Amino acid sequence: MKTAIYIRQSLDRDMTKVSVEYQREQLHKLCAARGWDAPVEYLDRNVSATKGTRPAYADLCADIANGAVGRVAVWDMDRLHRQPRELEDFIDLAEKHSVELANVGGDVDLSTPSGRMFARMKGTVSKYECEQKSFRQKSANEERAKRGKAWNMRVFGYDGDEIVWDEAKALREACEALLDGDSLWGIAKRWNAAGITTVKGSQWSGSQVRQVLLRPRNAGLAVYDVHGATRGGGTIRDAILEGVEVSWPAIVSRDTYDAVYGVLNDPARHTGKKRARAYLLSGLAYCGLCDRKMGTTMRKTKTGAKRVVYQCKNVGCMKVVRDLSRTDAHVVRVVTERLARPDAARLFAKPTVDTKALDKRVNEIRGLIKAAENEYDEGVINGRDLKRRRDKLQPELDAIGAKLIGANTGRKLDGLIGQPDAAERFAALGLDRRRAVIDTVAAVTILPTTKAGGVFDPKDIRIDWR
């Protein structure tokens, strides 16, 4: 039967690596003084006893349950538990398997009523201390946010209140690239290739780039999630504290931030966990039979050479196949010729949108929603009234969001409309931007064909202008 020592380093940073070493040293001494065998160590590093999973603790309980561990030594009971519910489970486990428990601050005999009472009292006090600390921390965070003070933790683009200029430059360029039609994964790839890392020194993923670009701090905006909006189905913009003067400079303008926010929260943008597309029309072109998006696949020619083709991969269809390179060349030629026409600006004109007026109305609506939430918190209105007010205001908020997204669509065509050399300019763009341009101006459908021998006919590619 093994002896175990359990060590936990707290998330709240009240312990350091030295403290872990000190716990280990004292626990080995305790086991030796008891005459227990050399212990097996279970260590949870940077894990709170109140939040998240504790892998080493779970392993310890499993080993107790299967009879592999019969003695447990800990620094103190609060290293083991800070939740009364979890303590009760451990008491049942220890009692069932006759576990001997020792701690440096004094033993607790869980086999006796007095020992269990002491453990429960200590657990209750520990939970109170955690809740009190959490309350003080939340209050301090709210006060700090309302005074416009930055968080102490280092974030990309900032070190305290100071801008980290190379990161800020990358962040501004990423915002512009996104508005020009680039993908999050495309931005992540460029940052990784350029040696730009996260603040922890890791490489970027598309989701991490999204998180950074959506951060209101970039635009000099203070945030505090007073009503738990981001946890209750709301968004980070619901947590912005309007009118608060902050202590740090903005990296991007409010207009740029709102435009980026609109693009990243466009319902049509949901891409799951897919990476950047490798081909111009994959996921853009429609199948002429089933009217769903087409993908790509590899096929062999008569000589045995491999070539990439567009193919419908949708179950129940999978019949339309077309040569990729010739399809791309045809679509690019037609699209760039259209963009190069002198009247292209009129052909692709978007309705003028007064974004400042829309932003003002957005803030007014959000103010009305927050006022209703405050009345609910104060007991002035009930939950039904709060829902009724939200439901009344939300459709207008959604409609304004759609207009703001449309106002930024034209950016994807910058430098192309009405330019005689539109074809050369288009060819110089990155793949994500070229895909965005095509998706902005046209819907491409690959029609079924009866032609044999792989003959390519441009008439089998339908291009509908948007």
Structure, described:
The structure is a single chain. A 4-stranded parallel β-sheet has the order 2-1-3-4, sandwiched between helices. It contains 15 helices and 14 strands. A hairpin with a 2-residue loop joins strand 5 and strand 6. The protein has helices spanning 17-34, 55-65, 77-80, 84-96, 113-146, 165-179, 184-193, 206-213, 254-264, 324-340, 344-347, 355-377, 383-409, 422-427, 431-441; strands at 2-8, 40-44, 69-74, 100-103, 158-159, 162-163, 222-223, 240-241, 286-287, 295-300, 306-311, 321-323, 442-446, 461-465. Mean pLDDT is 80; it is low at 12-18 and 226-234. It folds into 4 domains: 2-130, Rossmann fold; 158-265, Hect, E3 ligase catalytic domain fold (Alpha-Beta Complex), CATH 3.90.1750.20; 286-350 and 412-465, no CATH class; 355-408. The chain is an alpha/beta fold and 466 residues long.
Q: What's the end-to-end separation, in Å?
A: 74 Å
**Strands of the biggest beta sheet: in what spatial order?**
2-1-3-4
Helix content: 40-55%
What class, by secondary structure content? alpha/beta
Which percent band covers the strand fraction? 5-15%
Oligomer: single chain
- CATH fold naming of the largest domain: Rossmann fold
Compute the average pLDDT.
80
According to CATH, the homologous superfamily of the largest domain is Resolvase, N-terminal catalytic domain
What count of helical segments does DSSP give?
Answer: 15
pLDDT < 50 stretches: 12-18, 226-234
CATH uppermost class of the largest domain: Alpha Beta
| Sheet having the most strands | 4 strands, parallel
Under the CATH scheme, which architecture of the largest domain would be assigned? 3-Layer(aba) Sandwich
**Overall 3D form:** extended
How many β-strand runs?
14
Radius of gyration: 31 Å
Counting structural domains, the number is: 4
User: H/E element string?
Assistant: EHEHEHHEHEEHHHEEHEEEEHHHHHHEE
